Amino acid sequence: MNMAATTVVRPGLDTLVTGVSRITARRLGRRESAFAVADLLRDHLPGLDLLTPHELAGSPGGYVNHLLHAEEDFSICAVVWRPGQDTVIHDHVSWCTFGILSGIEHETLYRDMGDHLVEIGHADNRPGEVSGFAPPGDIHKVRNTSAEIGVSLHVYGANVARLGSSVRRVYDLPVR
């Protein structure tokens, strides 16, 4: 296990790193990995004390992604969203599992029809809820619809420190 990317001791992070390392070492498929990590995260979802007060403040310019740990097979990030902040429509380079620590993440799901996108569903993810997904079929947009700072913990099946991002593609297609 490579702990080099973990720069600050954070409550609960070591348990997650150890657990995710054990899961990724099993070399499961993408969906199976996402669901196994979701089960782990449900049992060990950390609290807001995972982040410093400065990190919890977010940024008026957009959501902030704090890389907490990265190694070749996975990364753990905390995303901080001020009310109303959102992402562009995108998909991911790998499977992902996320847990909500605060706020409400409204997620809209899409299907790529070639020349346009079709909305296929939505969900309001609330504190304590955990979910996971794997490409293909992971095209979405996320928005903090609550009046409070939103914080979510994301585990990606890729080294986002090396890649620079978990996003594979941004979709600039019309939604019909």
Automatic annotation (TrEMBL):
Keyword annotations: Dioxygenase, Iron, Metal-binding, Oxidoreductase
Gene3D superfamilies named in the record: Jelly Rolls
Residue ranges the record marks as coiled coil: none
GO molecular function, one term: dioxygenase activity
InterPro entries found in the cross-reference section: CDO_1, RmlC-like_jellyroll, RmlC_Cupin_sf
Family, per entry: Belongs to the cysteine dioxygenase family.
Keyword Oxidoreductase: yes
Organism: Nonomuraea insulae
Protein name (record): Cysteine dioxygenase
Domain of life per record: Bacteria
One Pfam family from the record: CDO_I
PANTHER family listed in its UniProt record: CYSTEINE DIOXYGENASE, CYSTEINE DIOXYGENASE TYPE 1
Cleaved signal peptide residues: none
